[in-house]
Specification:
Alpha-Beta Plaits; 7-stranded mixed beta sheet; about 200 residues; Gyrase A, domain 2
């Protein structure tokens, strides 16, 4: 019987260290410790789903492209009656199964943990790097902490979340990891960037 081991979506593409110009304008962290699941409300069950999420996780489901976080669990609005749920730490183990158990009567839940690449980006030049491929106004008055957008980055479908004043998160299909990394590393080189493992 074959055995499988977990590996980074960027294995063979990105290694820890400093790259590009001297100085670190950007820090890139690949998050391999997050569990992800899509949650789509069943027809006519949105109100019951909102109540179930609040009862189970203490999270008020966002209405629109926003992110709501309580503890280690977050729900990001990605479309009408659709969210990408995430969990870290102890909540991450069996997260999709937990969601199905608590939300199954009201929502379709699909595990996305192995299907997505998640990169957290921070640093003094993070917006300059993102501006090279993200067709959104990322000015702090236009894209605030907690905001979420599903958009294209260098022709690839990506979800971008602004986690706080200094940190953005990119979530993309794992199959696009090579293309996304090629764009990101080229865009960040002029500012210098650090790759950090977690």
């Amino acid at each position: 019987m074959a055995s499988f081991t977990e590996r980074s979506a960027l294995a063979g593409l990105a290694t820890p260290g400093h790259f590009g110009r001297a100085g670190a304008g950007l820090t890139v962290v690949e998050r391999t410790d997050i569990a992800l699941a899509s949650v789509i409300a069943k027809h006519g069950k949105r109100f019951m789903l909102v109540n179930a999420v609040n009862a189970a996780f203490g999270v008020a489901l966002p209405d629109g492209p926003r992110r709501a976080t309580v503890g280690s669990v977050a729900f990001a609005g990605t479309g009408p009656d659709q969210w990408l749920a995430s969990a870290e730490g102890a909540e991450a183990a069996g997260f999709a199964a937990k969601l199905r158990g608590r939300l199954g009567p009201f929502a379709a839940v699909s595990d996305q943990s192995d299907a997505r690449l998640v990169l957290q980006l921070s640093g003094p030049r993070v917006r300059d790097v993102l501006a090279k491929g993200v067709p959104l106004d990322l000015h702090p008055t236009a894209f605030k902490p907690g905001d979420v957008a599903t958009t294209l980055v260098a022709y690839m479908g990506v979800q971008i979340d602004r986690l706080d004043d200094a940190t953005y998160q990119l979530t993309a299909p794992r199959s696009m990891a090579g293309s996304l990394w090629s764009w990101l590393s080229a865009s960040a080189a002029e500012f210098g960037y650090d790759v950090v493992t977690r």
